[in-house]
Amino acid sequence: MESKPFWKETPLLRLAVCLMAGIVVGDMVVVGWWLLLVFVMTVALALLSWKHEHWQSVAIAVCFVVLGWLLMERQKASLEVAWPEDEVSYEVVVISEPVEKPKTIAVDVVLAESGRKLKCYLYKDDRSRNLKTGDGLQIQSRIEANSEWRRGSFDYHRYLEIHGFTGRTFVASWKWRKAKVSLAQLSKLERMRLTFLKYRSRLLSRLNPAAVANDDAYAVVAAMALGDKSALTQELKDVYSVTGASHVLALSGLHLGIIYTLLSLFVFNRRWQVLSQIIIIMSIWAFVFLVGMSTSVMRSATMLSVYALLSLGHRDRMSVNTLAFTAIVTLMFSPMSLFDVGFQMSYMAVLSILLFVPLLEGVFTAEYLMSHRLVRWLWGMIAVPLSAQIGTAPLIAYYFGRFSCYFLLTNFIVIPAAMLILYLSLVVLLAPSLAYILFYIVATLNSLLTKMALIPGASIDDLHPTKIQTTMIYVIIVAVYLLVVKLTCIRASARYH
C-alpha cells in the first residue's frame, strides 16, 4: 500500500509554516487595525467554502498567515513605550538572580504599576550584591529605550524584545532602596510566576557553593537543575560549546524527559492512569514556572503534556504533528519567539530527531536490536544526537560560527552525567549535607570537558555562513532526506514483490 506524501501526513506542520510566514511578514510590514478585518473575512471564507476541500485548505492557510501577521503586529505594538526624558520615581520587583558586571550589578525587574520588564543596572556595592528574587525596590532614575547593540549575527535589541524587555535603566547607589511593593497591578500569571521564582531563589540558596568552594560546579548544577544560568562564566560556556555539550546547560526535552521518567515511578498504577498523568502534567508545568518559563522548556512541557494525554488513548504520541502543534501554541502566545535562537534550535533539533532517527534505525533490523540490548543502546546514543546535529549544525554555524567535532563522543559522557546530576540535585535539595558528592561529580565532568576542549580539532571556528547560505544548507538536507525516503520505499516495495 502506497503511503501518503509527507506534506499530506502533517497538516499541522503546514499550518505552523503558514503561521510562521505571517509572523515574518508582520515583522517587516505594519498595516494597522484593518488587518483584523482581513482576518475575520478569511475565517468567514474558510467556513463558507466547506463544500470545496481544496479551496477551504487554501483559505485556512491564508487565515493562518494573516493570524501570524496580526499577532506579530500586536506584540510589537505592546513593546513600544515612550519613556519620560527626565528621571522618575517608580517601584519594581526583582525577577532574576543578580549578575555581577565590571562596574554594576545587573538584575531583571518588572514595574509594579504596568508589568513591563526592564534591564536594571545598579552601582556595584554590598547592598546590590545581596539582592534576591522577589525583592521590592523604590528607584529614582531615567528609563531608556533598549540598546541597538549588534555583534555579527547577534542582535541584542531583538533579543531584548523577544524576552519582553521594554527598556533599561542605570541606577546610582543613593537613588534606590528596598521597599514593600504591591503586586496588585500585575496579572495573576505574572504573580504566580514571581512566586515560583522566589521559591527557586530559596532552592538555589540551598545549593550555596560556599561550602564546596567550587563556583563552576555550582553554576552547572544551577543551570541544569533549576534553569539559572547567571553563575555561568564565559570560559565555562566556551568549554561546553567547543565540546558540543551546551545542550545540557539549557533545560529542554532531555531534562524534562528525565523528570517525567522519575515522576512515572512514583505515581499510581494502571487503575489510576488518568489521575497519574494529570499529576505528572501538573508537576511538569510547576517545574516550568519554577525554572523561569524559557522557550525550550515550555516546548518540551507542551510536548510532554500532549504525549501524556495521547498515551491514555494509545495514540501516536510523538510525531511531527505533535511538534507542529506545540509550535503553533507557543507562537500564538509569543509570536516573536520565532526569532529566538533557543526556539529555532529547540524545534529544529526535535524535528530532525523525528525525521532522521527512523531512517538511522533502519540500519539494523528491529529483531536484531531487540535481541542485542547493548547494540540498541549504543546505536540510540549515536542516532539521536547525530539526528539533532543535522538539524541544528547550520544554525549553530550561523549564530555562533562553530561546529563541534566531538559531539558524539561528548554525548556518551554528558547524557548519563546529566541524569545522575539531576537525580542527585533532588537528593541534595532534600539533604544539603550531601552536596559535596554532587559537586564532586560536576567538577569531574567540568574537568573532563575542559581537557576534551583542548584536544586539537575539537571544533571548527569562524564559519559564519550568510542567511542565504544557511537556507541553502537546509534545502540540501531536505532534498537528501526526501531522496533517502524515496529509495527506502523503493527497496521496501522490491522486497515485498
Topology:
Layout: H1 6-9, H2 11-28, H3 34-48, H4 53-78, E1 88-94, E2 99-100, E3 104-111, E4 117-123, H5 126-129, E5 136-141, E6 143-144, E7 150-151, E8 154-155, H6 156-162, E9 165-171, E10 176-178, H7 188-206, H8 215-226, H9 234-242, H10 253-264, H11 273-290, H12 295-312, H13 320-333, H14 341-361, H15 366-371, H16 373-400, E11 402-404, H17 407-430, H18 435-453, E12 459-461, H19 467-496
Parallel strand pairs: 4-9
Antiparallel strand pairs: 1-3, 1-5, 2-3, 3-4, 5-10, 6-9, 7-8, 11-12
Short précis:
Helix content is 61%, strand content 10%. By secondary structure, the chain is α+β, with helices and mostly antiparallel strands.
What features would you describe in this structure?
There is one protein chain. Helix content is 61%, strand content 10%. The protein has helices at residues 6-9, 11-28, 34-48, 53-78, 126-129, 156-162, 188-206, 215-226, 234-242, 253-264, 273-290, 295-312, 320-333, 341-361, 366-371, 373-400, 407-430, 435-453, 467-496; strands spanning 88-94, 99-100, 104-111, 117-123, 136-141, 143-144, 150-151, 154-155, 165-171, 176-178, 402-404, 459-461. The strands form 3 sheets. Strands 1, 2, 3, 4, 5, 6, 9 and 10 form an 8-stranded mixed beta sheet that branches. Strands 7-8 form a two-stranded antiparallel ribbon. The chain is globular, with a radius of gyration of 24 Å. The mean pLDDT is 85.
List keywords for this structure.
497 residues; alpha+beta; eight-stranded mixed sheet; two-stranded antiparallel sheet; 19 helices; 12 strands
